[in-house]
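mind reviewing this fold:
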Amino acid sequence: MHAFSNREKNIFFVCLIILFAYGGYRFGYQAFQENAASYQQRIAQAEKELRQYKGIARQEKDVLRKIAAYKDTFQQKGSDEQEMTKMLSEVEAAAQNTSMKIINMEPSRTKKGDFYNYFSINVQAQGSLKKIMEFLYALESQAYRFRIDEMRLEKYSLRADELKCQFVVSRFFILK
């Protein structure tokens, strides 16, 4: 083995510089560019989500106002017995307004959840189909906010226009 001449040393150093430059370009610059493109996509996606969240945040006051209105409407204000009595009187009032004849009303057992109470009433009524539909519409309208869970219609007699109907009226309340 002999020592390199100056010319060979210069060629060797130039080769090493070219090798390091290629390695830096390949493993440093190109990898950085690939990662930068990936990061740009992530940033663009995050900016898009941020714009969506800003839009939602702008609507916060309106949504909170609507939630408060619904909470006030559906919040249970009295005891279970008071609410059931109020429901019974509301069903009777709706029946009187639509000229429906109520045969029988029986409160069902209250179903209690973690944050709500579910009240239901079994109702038997008699009337024409038109009056029954008006009555059901009145119950489900904004004033009462009842739900009709089950319903069964039967012909009261062969000659009469009247029908006998049985249905379950329900309503839920949010606990305080």
Notes: Residues 26 and 32 are 10 Å apart (CA to CA).
